[in-house]
């Protein structure tokens, strides 16, 4: 399908939380320590408020919304058994097209806490923790093999989730490496995905095909060092601290006032779970698998790409090339936004998702059907 616009730049506007902090260190929101969430077998359902946070809190109800002013759909935190592993997901909304939100590297479904309650007003929204991340199980790479933590595995997880839990076709809303997961799922089973909305998709610049030939031996040696010696675990311990997580987030968020204590805990806590270090090292040593430019031509559903123009990790100048694929209907520039637009600028992202879904929900070719 031809793109309506080659590139669209949204007007910059005031963020939802316009605190004029000059630096990340000045942005502080005091919250209590978040206990770790260990879902039991089967399904665990707990209703929690989602205006600002859906971080698991031992199944308690934490209502931060004023239902008389701005009623928000309740969010349920659940577990789903997949191939014998427990997968955590969140869901909200009772009607409308199905959306599945897919997080990026090192993140989890709580990274969509500013999107779920808004989108759930007119959609059935699901946000999943990919296996190995968040509060889903983290099987040891040594037990499941080197080919387990790949986009093929995560793509299969996403399609099986739609078949088993959503029980419907769905739009995939994806950030960073989640975009590769969504693309892989859409290519593997085109009957499930109704459309792809990709936010700052990973360019995969450390992929073996993108490494200079003279650097490949050094990169491979370094990856082997991280994966097979104590160096990797020492490195992980150095980054799995509140200070390091905050520093990393301040690099990829252009508006550092959005890097709150709550966000730091959302990213940090699952990384302290057993097995998290091995998954972390396994992925940063993963230089194979598909590239976005290889998957995009194979996709059968409509694709919209949005990109924060201040992303220091995934260059928008390189990302613009993805807007030239026939399957991509628009490439939308999000001004003054970094790598995680759904969290940094939800006021820009949520309306884009709603309009994209509405546009393609009306198409007979993408009409909903139980799967």
TrEMBL record:
It comes from the Eukaryota. Residues 97-346 form the AB hydrolase-1 domain. SUPFAM superfamilies: alpha/beta-Hydrolases. Pfam families: Abhydrolase_1. Coiled coil: none annotated. PANTHER family: ALPHA_BETA-HYDROLASES SUPERFAMILY PROTEIN, HYDROLASE. This is AB hydrolase-1 domain-containing protein.
